[in-house]
Design a protein that fits this description.
Elements lengths: L1 E3 L2 E3 L10 E4 L7 H7 L4 E5 L2 H5 L2 H11 L3 E5 L8 H14 L3 E6 L1 H16 L8 E2 L9 E5 L11 E6 L4 E6 L7 E4 L9 H20 L5 H15 L2 H6 L4 H21 L3 H13 L3 H16 L6 H9 L12 H14 L15 H9 L3 H4 L6 H12 L1
Parallel strand pairs: 3-11, 4-5, 4-6, 6-8, 7-10, 8-11
Antiparallel strand pairs: 1-2, 9-10
Helix pairs in contact: 4-5, 6-7, 6-9, 6-11, 7-9, 10-11, 10-14, 11-13, 11-16, 12-13, 14-16
Length: about 400
């Protein structure tokens, strides 16, 4: 697909939604129905210690137990999960006798669950499947329950795992690993800390934004991306201000899912290509890294804008519409202002990134397929320059 005078010249594309998505406040209670539908009488629950400490894991385990289903849990998932964590989760899964996996949490538990599903079904190592389309077929049934409005991992075709020896964040990409079911319950995000709500919320908007300006965009992904930007942009300030705002929580949760669907098919861009090395080398939370990088990369991509920056601007500026004075460079400034309002750091230096690692991070960023669909062509020197600008 390409633009001529601001309009699409249509080319062939394809899409599918190969899963059941259930949305609604309190829909977590439908988990037993799903387990029965997939014929699962023994569950492997993958989550993290933070969700255990606040009682979310206990809530899900109680629902499973009351349904008369056995379960084994794996709660050792950490942010930016490593190959070793996947291996540990896999070994416990094999010993459990479970017939399906429930992934509870943000992107990290879901990434681990997807990789466990691959290895339990086909064997080998995570590194055997890095890249696009290397998973030969369906994996064990996976039910995803997101607890953040951010990653969209419940509907995406990727599993991102860190090689701790090289700090490289590897991506396994296959439509065979999209979860069989996604339970989208806004109640799960209504007790988030403000800082998590902020960075995850901006990350979700970035998923929609990068899908929208991607060279791989099509009318289907545009529809998902625009609705996601409308829902997130119109509610992120309210939600960060008050996580118990039910309307805002519903919009953020569904918006995040729609953004995930958009980028599952249109891919992303330089923001995500460059944020993964930041997380890999400096253990910066994924949403924070994306939020910091976004304004700098928007400035860089402005030269390639074909009218879409104005649309994005109107979704994020809290009701202030672009007038005839709008220029593409205004979009980056709008996100700098949003980050400041939400309490997100403005520079990479603020989160501990140092200039000496930029050459290595740039090499890793260029390995991402997302660079290829970024609206402005990018080489390794461009990436190094962008890192230095974002460093502040």
């Amino acid at each position: 697909m390409k633009f001529v005078r601001g309009e699409y010249v249509m080319k062939d594309f394809n899409f599918k939604i190969p899963q059941d998505i259930i949305f609604g406040k309190g829909c977590l209670s439908k988990l037993p129905e799903i387990l029965k539908e997939v014929g699962c009488d023994s569950v492997y629950l993958i989550s993290d210690p933070g969700l255990k400490s606040v009682g979310v894991v206990d809530k899900v385990e109680k629902i499973i137990t009351e349904a008369g289903v056995n379960y084994t849990d794996f709660l050792d998932v950490q942010p930016n999960p490593t190959i070793d964590i996947v291996q540990a989760a896999l070994e416990k899964y094999k010993a459990s006798g479970a017939k399906c996996v429930v992934a509870l949490g943000g992107g990290s538990p879901m990434d681990v669950a997807k990789s466990v599903g691959i290895l339990a079904t086909y064997g080998g190592k995570v590194t055997d499947y890095v890249g696009r389309g290397k998973v030969p077929g369906p994996t064990i049934p996976l039910i995803a329950i997101p607890t953040t409005a951010g990653t969209g991992s419940e509907v995406t075709a990727s599993s991102v795992i860190t090689d701790a020896e090289t700090n490289y964040k590897m991506a396994v990409i296959s439509y065979n690993i999209i979860p069989s079911y996604a339970l989208i319950d806004p109640e799960m995000i209504m007790t988030l800390p403000a800082s998590v709500a902020a960075s995850c919320g901006v990350d979700a908007f970035i998923h929609a934004l990068e899908a929208y300006v991607s060279k791989a965009a099509n009318p289907f992904t545009d529809a998902m991306a625009e609705k996601a930007m409308e829902m997130i942009g119109g509610n992120i300030r309210r939600f960060v201000a008050s996580r118990d705002d039910e309307e805002a929580a519903c919009n953020m949760m569904l918006g995040s899912t729609l953004a995930g669907i958009a980028f599952a098919w249109a891919q992303l861009g330089n923001v995500h290509a460059m944020s993964h090395p930041v997380s890999g080398f400096f253990h910066v939370a994924h949403g924070v890294a994306n939020s910091i990088l976004l304004p700098t990369i928007l400035d860089y991509n402005a030269l390639a804008d074909k009218g879409r920056y104005r649309v994005i601007y109107n979704y994020i500026t809290n009701g202030k519409k672009a007038d005839d004075s709008f220029t593409p460079d205004m979009l980056g400034d709008a996100f700098r202002k949003l980050n400041q309002e939400l309490g997100i750091p403005l520079t990479l230096a603020e989160v501990g990134v140092t200039e000496d690692k930029i050459p290595e991070m740039a090499v890793d960023a260029m390995k991402s397929g997302n660079v290829l669909v970024n609206p402005r062509q990018t080489n390794i020197k461009d990436v190094e320059m962008l890192y230095k600008k974002a460093l502040g």
